Every structure is written in C-alpha cells, then in structure tokens.
Amino acid sequence: MDHLKDDLREATWYRSPYSGSSGGNCVEVARLPGGRVGVRDSKRPAGPALVFAAREWNMFSRGVKAGHFPG
C-alpha cells in the first residue's frame, strides 16, 4: 500500500484542456505503474484519489465517449 502512496505522490497529473483556466469542477488523471490510472479532484490535490485498473479505466473511457453517462 505504501507503494501506491508513493506512486500517487510522484505521478504527473493532467487536466483536460476543456477544463478552462478558471479551475472549476475538474478532475486530474495520472498514469501509474502497472497500467493503473489515478483520478483526483483538481481543487484538492493532496486529498484522496481513486485508482483504477487499466481495463476498468478503458471501459469507463469508452462509455464516456459513447455518451453512456449523460451530464
């Protein structure tokens, strides 16, 4: 579990270019070792993060792109 904390702390986090510069309600995403993906609230970078297996993240991403999660 300590490795996960280190992975999250050392990760390079990315925010969508669609987020704008105002820093509103955004999430940040980071690629982690082992193909995992971290997701966190951009307003709370030291706060908790969700970690997904590569397969889970790919399935979620495809669902978003296909419009399965209406806003």
Instruction: State the separation between the terminal residues, measured CA to CA.
Output: 34 Å
Instruction: Kindly report the average pLDDT value.
Output: 87
Count the helices. How many?
2
Shape: flat
Q: Specify Rg, calculated over alpha carbons.
A: 13 Å
Neighbour order of strands in the largest sheet: 1-2-3-4
Strand content: 15-25%
How many β-strand stretches? 4
Structural class assignment: alpha+beta
Please summarize the sheet with the most strands: 4 strands, antiparallel
Share in helix: 25-40%
Q: Which runs of at least 5 residues are low in confidence (pLDDT < 50)?
A: none
Number of domains: 1
> What is the chain-wise order of helices and strands?
HEEEEH
InterPro entries: DUF397
Protein name: DUF397 domain-containing protein
Domain DUF397: 11-65
Pfam families: DUF397
